[in-house]
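PROTEIN–LIGAND DATA SHEET

This sheet pairs a single protein chain with one bound small molecule, zinc ion, given as SMILES. Inputs appear in the order they were entered. The predicted three-dimensional arrangement of chain and ligand is reported afterwards as a token string under its own label.
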Amino acid sequence: MNKNKESKGNKVKANFHMHTIFCDGKDHPEAYVMAAIARGFEAIGFSAHSPISLRENGRPLFNNGNMRASILDLYFAEIARLKEKYADRIEIYAGLEIDYLATDNQQRIKEYVARADYTIGSVHFIYDEQSGKYYSIDGSAEHVAQTFAEVGRGDNRECARAYYNDLVKVIRECRPNIVGHLDVIKKQNKNNLYFDEREDWYRRLIDGVLFEVVQAGTIVEVNTGGMLRGYIKEVYPSPMILKECLRREIPIVLSSDAHQAQDINGYFAETVELLRDIGFTKQKTLRNGRWIDEVF
Ligand SMILES: [Zn+2]
Ligand SMILES: [Zn+2]
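PREDICTION REPORTED AS:
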């Protein structure tokens, strides 16, 4: 990426969606802290994929890069160490990205949530009630094709309903501060391969989700991660959904879902432009442990 473009006009100096070597990221948390300080950031938050409890033959049911429960203490201890070490230069928060799985041990998830400074609620695997199986919604083209075929059973709308149904559940059950990559279901939907987001049935699904978001007082994440990794050419969620968020006065937070330190503000400058074009003037950010408005 063009370095000049990255820094020019970039008013957002925070990122609360970052993955490190504690889950599926490449760099140590301290590398992110250094990168953030170098770029003039004022606050950052780590969001390791929460451990999952579902097991098959004694092993985790998925390998989604989740943090192992056995290193949870180490994770919080390391972030606490960095918080203290860099206290005079940047605010650092220990968050979690809850990888919601409908049949997982929800009690354990509540325990994780209680330990974190903040949480992002995300769905990466949809639970198909009929077969009792999980299917990837943000995986490879091949995996997502299988998901639409098997969960949709000939009707892609059913697959979208199953996804948004689980997303509503994570909002209701886990009460995350932030809802992560809200329409990640479009990741492999190039050329409307599976659905057209402009159609009424899809807009109604989104309406239902945003209703829940308002009820729960959740922040909607504007996530550049799909662009950073070259899957899609726009942010999650789509401008169509962002316009609805603005109309309903739903707060937003910009993040890059960084998996390496150099990506902490990838596509931020362009996305701030997009958000301004839509009509947004501010986002949420954590300061002194509270979510406050930050004008951009
Ligand atoms: Zn995610
Ligand atoms: Zn993530």
